[in-house]
Amino acid sequence: MAGCRGPGLARALLGCVGLILLTQGDVTEASPFDLKMDRALLTVTSDLTYPVEAWTVSDVCYQCNLSFTGLIVTSRSSGNLTTNTSYPTRLDFVWNHGNGTNQSVCSHHYHYGEYGHYKMQLPKCKLSTLTDPVNSNIPILVAFFVYVALGAVWVVASYLYRRRFGGEEDEMRHLLINTGRHNDAGPPKPESPAKPRRLKSLDTFRGMCLCIMAFVNYGGGGYWFLDHSVWNGITVADLVFPWFMWIMGTSTALSFRGLQRKATPKLTIFGKIVRRTITLFLLGLFIVNAPDDWATIRIPGVLQRFAVSYFAVSTMMLLHMEVGGQEEHYSRTEWYRDLVPYWKQWLFVLCLLAVHTCLTFLMPVPGCPTGYLGAGGLSDLDHTNCTGGAAGYIDNWLLTQDHIYGDETPKHEYQILVNYDPEGVLGSLTSIFMTFLGLQAGKILLSYEDHGSRLVRWLLWGIGLGLLAILLCEGRQNGGWVPINKNLWSVTFVLSLASMAFILLSVYYFLVDVRRWWTGFPFFMAGMNSISVYLCHGVFQKYLPFSWKIRHETHANLLFMHLFGSSLWTIVFASYLYWNSIFINI
């Protein structure tokens, strides 16, 4: 049977745990509405005189072997199984002769619909629909149009308010001042002419990332495309973490220019770098992870990765910074002037990329192919424990299985048997490169004084990095020289996300800072208090009123709860901090 190597061996290795759940027996009274979310019911009837086994594999599981579901339909009988509806599924029915050989009776590939009830007739391999599935995308479309409508109302209200009161000041703060909320603060103080105007587009970009991150951390309504990619590829949830790192790099360039103006001693700056690094690492270790057992505490993590990348990039900047130096501005034709002065920094990060590439593709990993980039498990029954290749091996060697992530995204679909951490040690090298590319965006902002030059440079960087990523992955989700993989933080993943970041910042910069067609509301308020919103939502998101227990989970009620909770944090809570001039930084 094609695609099914050694059913007996696979069953022994994987413990007969299938990708689809099993219910056997008479199904005449079975109701599809008893199904869980993202599940469909399949009734299998057989007119054969011998028993057949059901084997399955999901399309999201790249190059995976078929997995035994546990369903055996005896002669002239029927059986039930439930199948995942998030991805298309291949289902094979096999006659196992019992002597190591098997014969394929029926092979069927289909994308089942949520809550649908289907019937498969053997040996005709005929699929019919008994109960039509539901369209699970309707709730998210409704939510989208609701938010669009609210945004339109806000735009109209803001326009009418500006027509009534005039001025370009932030509407909500202006409203609060004029209604007496901030009368004790007096009239707004004029901004010092020596102080550069805050890059509001960067706060808006950061705030948008925070809104998406809060939403997907809640669960994203249970939609697969709002969860992290199973192995290769990019989903919405994969965007925000690397974008945050890129934005951190851009902010580092701006903050270092401020320290440079003040002629802050390098030793003082290094002390600030060390303090912030330790703070970020400890926050990730003890607050976000909330460990309860020192023996199994997870050492890598999101904030820990931020800490490592920030320390590396900031220290590199500090070593090449001239205290008290003045910024220089270059014309658009002198395209190299934001690169050549920083050649030592580029040499450093390119060396890090070279180390990452050599370790990934050349380091011997016991029991695994050299340069292995797969998820293991069902994708390679000969190397089931090789998840992540060199990246997984380094984490297990340095941190052991007890101190890395234990609920990784490929665990279910690929049925991996070992823990794998997507924020592991080896990926920190490409994270540093991601942060450095954000630093490059900040250098462009400081090196060119006119809007056009900045936009042209950012767009060129965005297009160039995107083309390079397409070349390395050969324009495919799976395969290619270096697949796009968030779990590995592959070079192509970093290049593609940095490409999007350059282009998005260009769009926000044009709309918010150049034309001022958009104030950045509501994103910029969350962006100015990102660490507070992130930590508070991470600690309290499971408590009322931010979330509540749902008896029967559907996409509709999950989506409502997740949007409600994330909106409370990123809009209501962030707005409260902003209007009360509460800004917490690390």
TrEMBL record:
It comes from the Eukaryota. Residues 178-197 are annotated as: Disordered. Pfam families: DUF5009 (PF16401). Residues 1-30 form the signal peptide. The keyword Protein biosynthesis does not apply. Keywords: Membrane, Signal, Transmembrane, Transmembrane helix. The chain crosses the membrane at residues 138-161, 205-225, 231-253, 273-290, 302-321, 342-363, 425-446, 458-477, 489-511, 523-540, 560-579. Residues 232-306 form the DUF5009 domain. InterPro entries: DUF5009. This is Heparan-alpha-glucosaminide N-acetyltransferase-like.
